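Lab manual, section 2.4: Encoding a predicted structure.

Procedure: take the sequence of the chain (446 residues), apply the prediction step described in section 2.3, and record the output as structure tokens. A sample record is shown.
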Amino acid sequence: MKKAIIGLAVATTLTALTGCSGNSNSENAADTKNTSNAANTANTANTANTDSNEKFTIRLADGSPGDEVLKVWNQVKDMYEKQHPNVTVEFVLQDPQLYQTMGLPSLLNGENAPDIYFEWAGDRLKTRVNDGFAADLTEALEQDGLKGKFAEGNFVGMVYDGKKYMVPTDAQVTNVIWYNKKMFSDLSLQVPKTWDEFMAVCAKLKAANITPITTGNKDLWTAGNWNAHMISRVVGEQAYADAMELKAPFNTPEFAKAMSYAKQIWDNQYINDSVNGINDDEGAALFYNEKAAMYPSGGWFVSGAIDHAPDMEFDYFNVPTIAYAKGDQDSVIGVLQGYVVNKNSKHIQAAVDYLKLLESPEVVTMLSKAGSSMIAPGSEPETNPMNLKLRSMMNDAKTVVSPPDTGYNLEVADALNSATAEVLGGVSTPEEALKKLDEKIAPLKK
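Recorded output:
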């Protein structure tokens, strides 16, 4: 399947993502079995080339995961430390919003910088490479334990000057519209296929005194991600990319039209009035607690739902088609992501060996059962229906659009996300917000 990846400036064949997962399983017996199998596999393939008498710590930095995923991480930490008694693994976990913005750069530039860190492919990774914080992993990916686990298409946005700088973990759909199936059923609502149908669904929910949509946009990226997808649908993927890459202005009639759909949602009171005053976790809580019927978010929602709403019946739909729009109306917004080894680490091979364990079939299956969607193959066939559906969506999409804050310059992304917040919160008209946006990024063009 040929797939255009907008924002990574690449058109490539992304072969099927072969990660496997199963249903969430918290039984101690299953955990013990998985841990034992993974440890046995790793003993033969993941031996660190380090002096067994040298005691040291390797640090892994990431945004805080869900509780079930963290349980698996702690099991993997114990497994690795058992295999390498001289090594201690330390997790440096931050609020995901903090990590994505100022947190990771601060960690990399501080004392006790991480040896391994999570990052998104594309412009963000390129920045880490240029700043000297990413080790060349080309040869490491040919070592036993990593060799053969990934197709070349899994490395889109991870290769610079012919060198690979990331171990892929997953290809993440970063925004769909999750919905409460019971609420839809109770009101005899059908999944909307067009924007007009979407607005009609919102109107019926509002009439039933149910908040149609919840979003916590205090950190800007949540609604920014969703609205960027709508913008690309309206103006076209190339026009969106050109503006994000400072090749064309935002303040045009076409972009104003694209922004008008966010204004329509606010004007009709189809979204929580606290949209810009609460963060993503708080916005999600409104959905988990059935205070709203729909919640735009990414594939990570699955693990969150396992933790916070295990009994909720939910599903998702992509952004509905918009009439007379120029973009691919079946496009998906998403990113490739994974782990980077810090070029400045004194223990690069030990870090690579940890990633071998993390990508081993048994650990991949353990993570998948906890709600993570992994690229590397697991030890069991995947059965989690939402992960399967999301993976199929990503694989089948002809066009994948990069989110503002992972595929492009972060200052441009912040400016667009701020404009989205102003329109979605009723502070500015689309024209006013876009004028401010262009003024804010004008110095970047010099």
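Check your result against the sample. The first strand starts at residue 2 and ends at 6.
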